[in-house]
Amino acid sequence: MKAMKKDRVISSTIMILVTVAAITNTMAFNIVLISLICAGLYEFFHMMQIKKIPVYSYTGIVFGLLIPVSLLFQPKLTGKIELAFIVLVLLLIFLLQMARNNNKDAIVGISTTLFGVLYVSWFFSFLLKTKFLLPGKEGEYLVGFVLLVTKMGDIGALAMGLRYGKHPLLPRISPNKTIEGSIGSFVFSIAAAVLAQGLLPASLQFSFWHIVMMGAFLGGIGQLGDLSESMIKRDCQVKDSGKILPGLGGVLDTIDSVLFTAPVFYFYMSSVLNVG
User: Fold this and answer.
1) Is 108:247 a contact under the CB 8 Å cutoff?
2) What is the pLDDT of residue 79?
3) Burial of 98 (C-beta count, 10 Å sphere; 0-12/13-18/19+)
4) Mean of pLDDT values over 121-131
5) pTM of full prediction above 0.70
6) For site-directed labelling of 177, which of 37, 88, 156, 234 has its Cα 20 to 30 A away?
7) Burial classification of residue 259, based on how many CB atoms lie within 10 Å of its CB (0-12 exposed, 13-18 middle, 19 or more buried)
């Protein structure tokens, strides 16, 4: 237990340092984001292979990486281009399936490959889209805000769950998560939002209660992302998505909450800023 806690502290410290470097340096941000997407895609498709689903791993990883790379060169991709990209991926997967000698579980393999690209790459790439909502440091501050609120929620869930957790939240999906941990996640996310409100554009003039509601909403969405990845792991009968981060598991175990908060935060901020 002590070794596990030490691993969690070390891994969490490394992730915090990497996050700070990523949101303050454009090159570091791009490299970290693309690396996390690549590792997350690999872990996802590896879990599907454990479940014996005939996914197109290499195709999914390559096309998954094309999403953030294309955003770097064309930040203002329209919805039509994104939809066209999804259609292109789906058509290619169908062609690959036709080249296979075995049609068993074809629908499952095709659907799961496309889902992996959307779930890991497209959702996480909304951090890039958020960064490009505003020029310069203001865009980086937006990314810092959503990451801070989301990850503080994760820390709150872990800390309060370990200290006070007695009542299971959804044991069918994740037996270790508790109601007390969930409440702690909300509290930490709200506190992070209030403390980090200086990262939001001053021109928006959000009220205190507006910030509180943002923190609570992002905290709830982050927990939904965490539970969703737990559901996927449980279906695949694996404890962690990978072992790249000692004490934390895999990359997907680390970014699962951000996969849901990133697109939600992007759409909200693009709406209030009237951009994007």
Assistant:
1) no
2) 65
3) exposed
4) 93
5) yes
6) 37
7) buried
Following CA atoms 19, 21, 22, 28 in sequence, which dihedral angle do they give, to the nearest 10 degrees?
A: -140
Residue type at 42 in one-letter notation: Y
Query: At residue 130, does pLDDT exceed 70?
Result: yes
The phi, psi pair for 6, rounded to 5°, reads -65, -45
What is the spatial distance between Cα 225 and Cα 216, in angstroms, rounded to a whole number? Answer: 14
Contact yes or no for 156/132 (Cβ under 8 A): no
Residue 218's pLDDT band, with cuts at 50, 70 and 90, is: very high
For 131-146, what is each residue's pLDDT tens digit? 988 887 888 899 989 9
Between helix 179-195 and helix 136-164 the angle, nearest 10°, is 150
Count of beta carbons in the 10 Å neighbourhood of residue 89: 22
Greatest Cα-to-Cα distance within the chain, rounded to the nearest angstrom: 61
Residue 213 contacts residue 149 (beta carbons within 8 Å)? no
Q: What is the pLDDT of residues 223-273, one digit of tens each?
A: 999 999 989 999 998 887 877 766 667 889 888 999 999 999 999 999 998
Counted domains in the chain: 1
How many Å apart are CA 151 and CA 159, to the nearest integer?
12
Cβ-Cβ contacts under 8 Å for 254 (sequence gap 6 or more): 15, 245, 248
